[in-house]
Write a structure and sequence with these properties.
single chain, 5-stranded antiparallel beta sheet, 5 strands, alpha+beta
Length: about 450
């Protein structure tokens, strides 16, 4: 490092004024929460959930059977991982504020004694390079703060989507468990009847064993259904951030009915390009890399430049005032490596943005296909399979009462009905999950990973 000193009249007043100007950077009143809340509200369907606080509000939501929206609201206001994501905004804003402030000035003091008496050197130095590049550094950190806001909003949208998916899984499990309990009662009655008929000699051992194994399978199916209901409920409980007495929330006994019509595809790809938060984040990342490239070029030649006020006095001479400038000489490092790295990172950000857009368009097409297929299947079971199964059961029962059908046919029909009803519940559940994932593909950051 080379140092140049000149004795001239430069008072520290001007440098102090510059330092005061750099200290005007301050924190925002809400730490970015207003922006995050606005982004999340428009995409989760539960406005003001992130800013909704208080145990009274939580107790009010838990007092009623949960629906998908109330579950999402509870998760957004109570999930601990969401609170961690929001707390990260503070660190990003602190970096932004720090970028708008100069390094603290350096103070030097020296005293020497010789044949000419005592000599005292005093000096105050300021980071002039930091001052000159401050606007660029502030702009970079402002972009990163905006990225942090987007990331928090992405976390909120993803949490709402995960909670809705967990909710529909939990309600479907409750509905399946209730049906399997009824199926077990039917199987138990059939097994008992088969045993009596076999003992009376009216049924073969083979037919009686078939009915017994149907009952044994029903016992196992009910045990699995109960466990699945517990697993899905606990997953939902974790997402809601509940524990203790709060975990005793009530779920409805059945899934919501299908909508009258499926949503048409329309221009969902354009919607995704405009609304998806990961696409917006990728664009911001590319802009941030462009700004960083500009800073690297500016500081590539000189990245350390200090200016300061000096004061020197001796016991036998009047006081001398002046200024001191110190800078790095680019003898070994001309900044080419830093420039090349910044350029590579910028190209990387551009390609990442393009890749994110391609993936988003593909994901939204797949999500809509899943949504439409799930709707058509659920409607098919609701309008065709289940009514036909009910018709068959009714006709078999009428024929049995009229002694036109045997007990064998009645019991066989009961076994077939179990599979059809379970399939109908599953298709209805799959539709609501597919609808949730379609909204995530359009508004958030893509479909959630399957469990």
């Amino acid at each position: 490092m080379a140092r140049f000193t000149k004795s001239t009249c430069l008072t520290p007043l001007a440098l102090a004024a510059v330092l005061l100007l750099s200290g005007c950077a301050s924190f925002s009143p809400d730490g970015g929460m207003q922006t995050v809340s606005a982004l999340a509200d428009a995409r989760t369907g539960v406005p003001a959930a992130l800013t909704d606080k208080g145990d009274d509000r939580l107790a009010q939501l838990l007092a009623q059977p949960l629906d998908a929206d109330s579950a999402a609201r509870i998760a957004l206001m109570n999930n601990h991982a969401m609170k961690v994501a929001l707390a990260e905004l503070g660190a990003s804003e602190a970096d932004l504020v720090q970028a708008g402030r100069l390094r603290n000035p350096g103070l030097s003091f020296g005293r020497s004694h010789g044949s000419h008496g005592n000599e005292i050197d005093r000096g105050v130095s300021f980071d002039l390079a930091g001052l000159l590049t401050m606007p660029m550094r502030v702009n970079i950190e402002r972009g990163r703060f905006e990225q942090a806001k987007l990331q928090a909003a992405i976390s909120a949208v993803q949490l709402a989507s995960d909670t809705r998916r967990a909710y529909f899984n939990a309600v479907a499990a409750v509905q399946t468990e209730a049906f399997m309990q009824r199926a077990l009662l039917s199987a138990e009655a059939g097994a008992e009847l088969a045993t009596r008929l076999q003992q009376a000699g009216n049924w073969s051992r083979l037919d009686q064993a078939r009915q017994q194994v149907f009952y044994a399978d029903a016992v196992g199916d009910l045990a699995r259904a109960r466990h699945q209901a517990l697993v899905t409920r606990e997953h939902l409980t974790r997402l809601l951030g509940l524990w203790g007495k709060q975990a005793s929330f009530t779920l409805p006994s059945r899934l919501p009915d299908l909508p009258a019509q499926a949503v048409e595809a329309g221009n969902i790809e354009a919607q995704a390009m405009e609304q998806r938060l990961d696409v917006q984040r990728a664009k911001l990342d590319a802009h941030a890399m462009a700004d960083a490239l500009g800073l690297a070029k500016v500081t590539g030649f000189v990245n350390v430049l200090d200016v300061g006020y000096t004061n020197k006095s001796t016991s036998e001479a009047p006081r001398e005032n002046g200024y001191e400038v110190s800078l790095e000489l680019p003898l070994f490092d001309w900044g080419s490596a830093r420039n090349a790295r910044a350029q590579a990172l910028y190209e990387q950000a551009l390609q990442r943005t393009a890749g994110t857009a391609v993936q988003a368009r593909s994901e939204v097409r797949v999500a809509y296909s899943s949504y439409r297929t799930a709707y058509d299947l659920a409607r098919h079971y609701r309008d065709e399979v289940v009514p036909l199964r009910k018709t068959i059961s009714h006709e078999v029962l009428l024929r049995y009462n009229g002694m036109l059908a045997s007990v064998f046919e009645l019991l066989a029909d009961a076994r077939e009905q179990v599979a059809s009803v379970n399939s109908a519940i599953e298709t209805q559940r799959d539709f609501w999950i597919a609808q949730t994932e379609l909204q995530s593909a359009i508004n958030g950051s893509g479909p959630a990973a399957k469990e």
